């Protein structure tokens, strides 16, 4: 391990290896960093701000458990300010402080990356002269190219409890957005500073616009082997959860796909729903076939996927859960591949590649995922059973995003895998999202966004993320509606936004009352 000590991300202080100071060619921090990545490709390069009171923990191996991991921790400062939330609302922007959390927002306080991994970025980033800008560029580009990036409190013995200081200016933020995002984001950022902070940052906007774009740059990391040295489970087992309603033929197909698995599930938990009190099951074929796994069949008269999945989770005994929709199809090696990859990557949740019939894969690389698929994911039970599907989202949309954010708050990263595929048939019959659209319309006004989406915004977004989401929603929706006078449209959308806030607040208050 190489210890690269610096002063506030600007001045090189010293370099240590195995407890002994080693020499580098000069005193330039950036040049020394690149030199170390070339001299020590198999070593972890750990940077430490000598000006910050830090005690490095002895748990580094648990953080950097395979080569394609980059991690840091903000003890006293952060490089990319919270205003990044104006143009980015993915979970990576607002990491939870007390757990290992996926984020590309790197701190110069303490962090690390494997030498040969960092060196793959030199051809593109070799001219950067700001260390904070450099490590955040590596992580932002790397995250889309199979680099796993984290905020890792386990890097230090005493995680921070103080307010973080900003260490860069607005011009650097605009430069960063100009290089790492679609250029339209620069204009949104510029507008948000005018509207919400009363700052007209024209020259910062210009600085961003003249930067060379690295948006969607392809970094070749795939030939670096990933093999986690986290202790593997002694036994691997999978239970499957399938909520279903009105789709007996599709359910029979998925049971046959499970029956043909090379690695069989231990248990398949089916929650069949029919709102008619005197109705009978449509799944009689379950008892007419010998299945190579246990089937637990719940037949209930309450509808909703959230309640169904929560009910099914009470029956979980295996150490993995396959959350499956009732209208997907998959090959016989799906479960063995999923469990193998969970172990190889040392992760807690795998989001499988879900495509429509005849479609091609859009994202071709393993990467940290900003969403969560509640019908196409395999999750370690130790994490999943600490969470539940919030019934605030019943019959609507957003329960999967909420569950994914709960998982991340428990220290469980969600990884997308392009090579483990399910085919989503999108069956026309049956389904759960059946609440009439006009249920929230009041005085001929429909809330925007939906109250369930507003619940997610209120629960998980920072102040800047919420305001940025609002601006983007207003812009995107303008082309999809009939009001073409801008001032009339803005007035209407403000009322719809306020209605959504009101209804979501009522739902959240009702939910908290029920819990107590």
Helices and strands in order, then pairings?
Layout: E1 2-7, E2 11-17, E3 20-21, H1 29-39, E4 44-49, H2 60-63, E5 69-73, E6 77-78, E7 101-102, E8 110-114, H3 115-119, H4 122-125, H5 131-143, E9 148-151, E10 165-166, H6 170-180, H7 184-197, H8 202-209, E11 238-244, H9 248-259, E12 267-273, E13 294-300, H10 305-313, E14 320-324, E15 328-329, H11 334-345, E16 349-355, E17 367-368, E18 376-380, H12 381-384, H13 399-409, E19 414-424, H14 451-460, H15 463-478, H16 486-515
Parallel strand pairs: 1-4, 5-9, 6-10, 11-12, 11-14, 12-13, 16-19
Antiparallel strand pairs: 1-2, 2-3, 4-8, 5-8, 7-9, 14-18, 15-19, 16-18, 17-19
Q: What is the correct CATH architecture of the largest domain?
A: Alpha-Beta Complex
β-strand number: 19
The Rg value, from CA coordinates, equals 25 Å
Query: How much helical structure, as a percent, in the residues?
Result: 25-40%
How would you classify the helix and strand content by structural class? alpha/beta
Helix count from the secondary structure assignment: 16
Major sheet description: 9 strands, mixed
The CATH class of the largest domain, by name, is Alpha Beta
Q: How much of the residues is beta strand, in percent?
A: 15-25%
- Write down the overall mean pLDDT: 94
Q: What is the CATH topology descriptor of the largest domain?
A: Spore Coat Polysaccharide Biosynthesis Protein SpsA, Chain A
List low-pLDDT spans.
Answer: none
Instruction: Give the N-to-C terminal Cα separation.
Output: 50 Å
Instruction: Name the CATH homologous superfamily of the largest domain.
Output: Spore Coat Polysaccharide Biosynthesis Protein SpsA, Chain A
Number of domains: 3
């Amino acid at each position: 391990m190489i210890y690269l000590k610096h002063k506030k991300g600007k001045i090189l202080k010293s370099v240590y290896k195995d407890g002994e100071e080693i020499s580098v060619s000069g005193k330039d921090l950036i040049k020394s960093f690149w030199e170390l990545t070339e001299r020590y490709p198999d070593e972890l390069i750990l940077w430490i701000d000598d000006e910050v009171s830090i005690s490095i923990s002895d748990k580094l191996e648990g953080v950097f458990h395979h080569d394609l991991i980059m991690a840091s921790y903000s003890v006293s400062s952060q490089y990319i300010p919270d205003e990044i939330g104006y143009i980015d609302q993915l979970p990576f922007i607002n990491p939870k402080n007390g757990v290992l959390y996926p984020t590309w927002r790197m701190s110069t306080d303490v962090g690390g990356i494997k030498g040969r991994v960092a060196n793959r970025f030199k051809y593109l980033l070799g001219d950067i002269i700001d260390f904070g800008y450099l490590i955040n560029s590596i992580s932002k580009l790397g995250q889309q190219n199979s680099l796993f990036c984290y905020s890792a409190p386990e890097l230090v013995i005493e995680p921070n409890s103080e307010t973080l200081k900003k260490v860069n200016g607005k011009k650097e933020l605009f430069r960063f957005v100009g290089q790492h995002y679609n250029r339209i984001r620069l204009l949104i950022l510029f507008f948000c500073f005018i509207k919400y902070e009363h700052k007209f940052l024209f020259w910062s906007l210009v600085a961003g616009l003249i930067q060379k774009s690295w948006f969607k740059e392809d970094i070749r990391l795939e030939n670096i082997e990933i093999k986690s040295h986290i202790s593997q489970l002694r036994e691997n087992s999978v239970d499957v959860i399938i909520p279903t309603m009105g789709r007996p033929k599709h359910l029979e197909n998925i049971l046959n796909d499970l029956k043909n698995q090379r690695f069989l599930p231990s248990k398949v938990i089916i929650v069949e729903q029919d709102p008619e009190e005197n109705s009978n099951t449509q799944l009689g074929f379950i008892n007419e076939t010998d299945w190579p796994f246990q089937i637990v069949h719940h037949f209930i008269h309450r509808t909703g996927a959230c309640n169904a999945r929560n009910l099914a989770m009470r029956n979980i005994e295996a150490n993995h859960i396959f959350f499956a929709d009732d209208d997907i199809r998959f090959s016989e090696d799906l479960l063995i591949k999923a469990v193998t990859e969970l172990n190889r990557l040392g992760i807690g949740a795998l989001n499988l590649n879900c495509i429509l019939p005849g479609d091609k894969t859009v994202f071709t690389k393993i990467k940290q995922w900003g969403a969560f698929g509640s019908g196409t994911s395999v999750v370690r039970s130790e994490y999943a059973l600490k969470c539940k599907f919030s019934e605030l989202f019943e019959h609507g949309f957003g329960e999967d995003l909420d569950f994914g954010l709960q998982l991340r708050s428990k220290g469980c990263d969600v990884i997308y895998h392009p090579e483990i595929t399910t085919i989503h048939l999108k069956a026309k019959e049956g389904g759960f999202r059946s609440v009439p659209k006009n249920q929230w319309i009041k005085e001929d006004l429909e809330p925007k966004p939906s109250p369930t989406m507003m619940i997610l915004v209120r629960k998980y977004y920072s102040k800047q993320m919420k305001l940025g989401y609002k601006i983007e929603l207003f812009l995107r929706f303008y082309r999809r509606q009939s009001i073409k006078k801008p001032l009339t449209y803005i007035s209407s959308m403000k009322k719809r936004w306020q209605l959504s806030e009101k209804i979501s607040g009522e739902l959240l208050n009702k939910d908290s009352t029920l819990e107590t």
